[in-house]
Amino acid sequence: MDSQKDEIKRTETENRRPSEKRLARGLEDVSHLFLSQSAAGPVEKDTGQASSREENPARAAPPGTPFILRASQALNRELLISLLNKNTAVLEEGLQGIDSSIPCKPFDAIDLLAVDEAEQLAIIDVDTEPNNDLILRGIAHYDWFIRNTPIVRRMYHGRVINFSAQPRLFLIAPSFSPLLMCTARRFESLKICCFVYRAVSMSGGIGVFFERA
After folding, report:
1. Backbone region of residue 192 per phi and psi (left: phi > 0; alpha: psi in -120 to 50; beta: other values)
2. What confidence score (pLDDT) does residue 203 get?
3. Quick check: helix, strand or coil at residue 10?
């Protein structure tokens, strides 16, 4: 009797084993499906990033890739002078602006005044149009400083300036005529430095590029 009961138990145990194994495989299959779905998530995300890069090709471009800039007409004279006053070193390393719109009667006001690394004064005159009169205005400002050195000393008392050296002259414009450049070369003692600028439209505003002529 006992042997018959033991045989029945063994038979029931063997009958249950296949179902347990199938259940285990079922759980494994289900977990595999979940893993597949989670792995599919980043694929959709990457697709979104790809479409974003297509909408903004400049952002997707690798470093060093050239892109097109468009000339800007929004840069007026006041804004250009303000930019140079805050970033005078773009013209020359060590150049530091110290004043702007300096009255210079009977001539027009000096746009900017700076000192270089040698503590030498630099007169900076700006024009947003090609204009041969720019060099005449610069030379007049240079002459005013030479004739009024005592006044200039009092104006900038306490600032280290090498008044024993003649002031330098910087001319800034979008372009210079051959006549102006030829005239500037003849004034070797004045050390006239001519810089052309280019204004370009950018996503964050206006970009300005300066280059010595």
Report:
1. beta
2. 72
3. helix
| Cis before 106 (ω within 30) | yes
Residues of the chain with pLDDT under 70: 1-61, 67-74
Q: 138-173: b or e for each residue (b if 16 or more CB lie within 10 Å)?
A: bbebbebbeeeeeebeeeeeeeebeeeeebbbbbbb
**Residues 103 and 109: beta-carbon distance below 8 Å:** yes
Measured in whole angstroms, the distance separating CA 150 from the mean position of its chain's CA atoms is 41
| 3-class SS of residue 11 | helix
Q: Which burial class, exposed, middle or buried, applies to 199 when counting CB atoms under 10 A from its CB (0-12, 13-18, 19+)?
A: buried
Residue 169 near residue 123, CB atoms below 8 Å:
yes
Residues 6+ apart with CB under 8 A from 129: 173, 174
Token readout for 198 is 């280019």
Question: Would you say 175 and 210 are in contact if contact means Cβ atoms under 8 Å apart?
Answer: no
**What Å distances lie between residue 150 and 18, 96, 144, 153, CA to CA?**
109, 22, 11, 5
- Contacts for 73 with CB less than 8 Å, ≥ 6 apart: 199
Please give the pLDDT value at position 41: 42
Contacts of 116 (CB under 8 A, 6+ apart): 92, 94, 95, 96, 122, 168
**Threshold 0.85, pTM exceeds:** no
> What pLDDT shows up at residue 208?
81
CB 202 within 8 A of CB 166: no
